[in-house]
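User: Teach me something about this protein's shape.
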Amino acid sequence: MTLEERKRIVLEKGACFKCLKAGHISKKYRSRLKCIVCGYSHVPLMCLGLAEKKTSPQQKESSSEQDNVKRDQVMSNQTSSYVFLQTVNFKVKGQSGMVSVRALIDTGSQRSYILKSIVSSLSLKPKKAEKIVHCLFGGTEMEQVHYCYDVTISKGDYRKTFEVLDQAQICNEVSPLFYGPWIQELKVLNVEVSDCKSQGPIEMLLRADVIGSLYMGKRHLLKCGLVANETYVGWTVEGKVPTLNSTTMTVISMFTNPSITELWRLDVLGIEEPTERKTKIEKALAAKELFCETVIVGRYEVRLPWLEGHPPLPTNYHIANRRLQTAVKQLEKNGLMSRYKTVFEEWERLNIIEKTTRGDVGHFLPHRPVVKEGSATAVRPVFDGKDEPSLNQCLEKGENLIELIPAVLTSVNPRDRQFLKFLWINEKGEEIVYIHNRVVFGVNSSPFLLGATIQYHLKKSKEDCLLPGCEYAKETIEKLARSFYVDNSVASVPDLEVLNRFIKEATMIMAEAQFDLRGWEFSGNSNSSDGISVLGLKWFTTRDILTINPNLLTCDRESVVTKRKLLSIAQKVFDPIGFTSPVTLLPKLWLQILWEKNILGH
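Assistant: First, the predicted structure itself:
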């Protein structure tokens, strides 16, 4: 297909000539794109230089005869259903000792590779340098120089030495064998899989000739369709994971990209360019760098971490208006309208929100009431950043540094507030528009932004405590940094004197950023017979014991027991620390068995 034919198709679809996505034109595309062929701002598929690089089969054959450099060609094939790849664990010996590595068995590879970080940790010495040309079927080629090493792998009494090439990164995430019906089959066959718990990166890639000498010849075809193979370094499992939905989409990836990492990506599907995608770690680091570059100290003000190349956010006024009408009807029916309205009035008084006159243009956050009797805020609004078209699709989630901090602490940069509008009604029933000035819980990047703000503030306070005249200690900051979870600070101190000092200094440290630490409780401080709620449990401070809230465990014994009811009971106990895990794990295991054996109704 010529470039002109591709342009015609894009024009008919009403898509952008730069990113090939619908909803905007190329003149309004503001994200950074870089073509790997010419370097200009468009995807490689729309590059004029790509057509110039194509040659006829006769030319290709002629050039291959003149080219003395060895070419390793690979084609990546992915499917929408999950496929287990053969991975193993073993030890690699070097001059500085031995390390355990996670390896991927690739029967289609002509060379073996090892991460440069493993080479460095083992202090391996290269025996030569070799020029390799990496290419994809139908794509361009790129020469890279790799250093060659002889490595010895071992597991138990088995030893094998072979040649590997160094590589900065071999591939992205490759999942180990996870839980499923195949686990029980393997147990019956007395098969112990080599790689079933590791979640780390792939550190070695084993080529075809090495793999041939690893297989011991024993294999099992499981009832679920997976295949188990025995090797000298342990059992491996491969095959497509059984699924109830037989309709799958298979995509052959023929993207022009010379990187070994991109050849093994499991998430390269469809039209998205591999060069535009980043690993989760890279995105999280980029989000944190943006935070550090844009945060404003004082009443902390942050930018939203927008994704590169995110889809445009069209107005969703009609969706937000429809959700508002539903919320109002629900509030009036339950007699909660005045209490819900009071929340917004209090927020406006505290400058958490403010009225705006931007009308029905732009993006809005739909909201709904959540009722929780007995809490400090019995009825409160919950904002939805997932509603299509989604704000959350356009933001980098970032590392979840803290599960949830009250969403009234951190100010949002004025440039991003236009995307945090919501609708409400006044006393006359007329529609009004509010805009958020603070980070909103319900937007997927909020936990990251709020957690990053606390980390940033504590790091800054740690530097300030070294200055003369500082009224708090470094030890208090370090303890405070380790103690935050959800909206609680949970710490342990040896005696009452240290406790009083910690309360005083911690309150002072967080007050500098206008964080209000309050409601302190400690052992022997309260005589409440109902206990104090802390991280999902009940804490009786007089006896200093933690218990499950008994109200969560009540159920109608006369009702029919179903899997749905068992699931509901199993999920009632919220215990992020894990005190109750030995007990709460049992109903979850029972539920798995019920599903496997198809016992009880839904």
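Now, about its shape. The chain is about 30% helix and 20% strand. The first strand starts at residue 71 and ends at 74. If you'd like, I can walk through any region in more detail.
User: That's plenty for now, thanks!
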